Amino acid sequence: MWNKIQYALLYAWVKTHALLPMPLLYVLSDILYVIIYRIVRYRVAVARRNLSASFPEKSTKELRLLERRFYHHFSDYIVETIKLAHISQKEVLRRAHVENPELVDQLMEKGHPCVILLMGHYGNWEWYSASTPIFKDARIYQIYRPLKNLAVDRLFIQLRTHFGSFGIKKNDTIRDIIQLKKDKTRCVVIFLADQTPSKANLHYWTDFLHQDTAILTGPERIAKKLDLPVVFLDVRKKKRGFYTLRMELIAENPRTTPENDITERYARLMEKSILRDPAYWLWTHKRWKYKHEQEQ
């Protein structure tokens, strides 16, 4: 009962703020920046440690500037996500524009009804759930890890599926994708593949942002098992509240690729996106909590 009450209050708060126009929401973002970064100091130690290790060549002054830019963007991400509760799909697609949706359509026309799309916590990944109409008769599915707080988890599911996309729980991924392929469902399955693998799944390591890094291999294993094309989503933030997205084919026939080739190619593409402008990646994530020697 308490979870239902908590969700109702949380959703009412979000819905109320979502009624505000974007300019006012960005005023709220500026206030949030002060609260999150200056007062609460939300995971500042984590972000600072990640930035320092990823950019050893930068001076302290440069790192602090990058840190501040990240927290400004993080505050924007929060209000932009809130806006999902009251924004038209047309407006989201205008602000998060996919430049080449035809890539997915072409793969499907070749006989691949299901495509795996790999992306990262870059820009505003929540807005991309609104992209359903850009693909011909295709559904969008997002793999997600349920949050511990049930009310917050329910809220994010509500926001992410608002425009007709679907969620797949992490533990149900293989079963559900097998069923989608069996049913020949035209679909794009999105993986946020820059997350830290669980301790039991530290199977592949590579140099990523100057650090020995474990990379998720689950998407590649699924792609190979079901022979599903893999596409990378490159994101650029053009200005406040506006993003462009471009898809790049990683592998059309994964079964023909060498082991870990897809995983490595994703790591390189993701790293390239981050290095273009590091401020828009999620630096508060504990990305390097495991060390390579722990796996040995």
TrEMBL record:
<dbReference type="GO" id="GO:0016746">
    <property type="term" value="F:acyltransferase activity"/>
</dbReference>
<keyword id="KW-1003">Cell membrane</keyword>
<keyword id="KW-0472">Membrane</keyword>
<feature type="transmembrane region" description="Helical">
    <location>
        <begin position="20"/>
        <end position="40"/>
    </location>
</feature>
<keyword id="KW-0812">Transmembrane</keyword>
<keyword id="KW-0997">Cell inner membrane</keyword>
<keyword id="KW-0808">Transferase</keyword>
<dbReference type="GO" id="GO:0005886">
    <property type="term" value="C:plasma membrane"/>
</dbReference>
<protein>
    <submittedName>
        <fullName>Lysophospholipid acyltransferase family protein</fullName>
    </submittedName>
</protein>
<dbReference type="GO" id="GO:0009247">
    <property type="term" value="P:glycolipid biosynthetic process"/>
</dbReference>
<dbReference type="InterPro" id="IPR004960">
    <property type="entry name" value="LipA_acyltrans"/>
</dbReference>
<keyword id="KW-1133">Transmembrane helix</keyword>
<keyword id="KW-0012">Acyltransferase</keyword>
<dbReference type="Pfam" id="PF03279">
    <property type="entry name" value="Lip_A_acyltrans"/>
</dbReference>
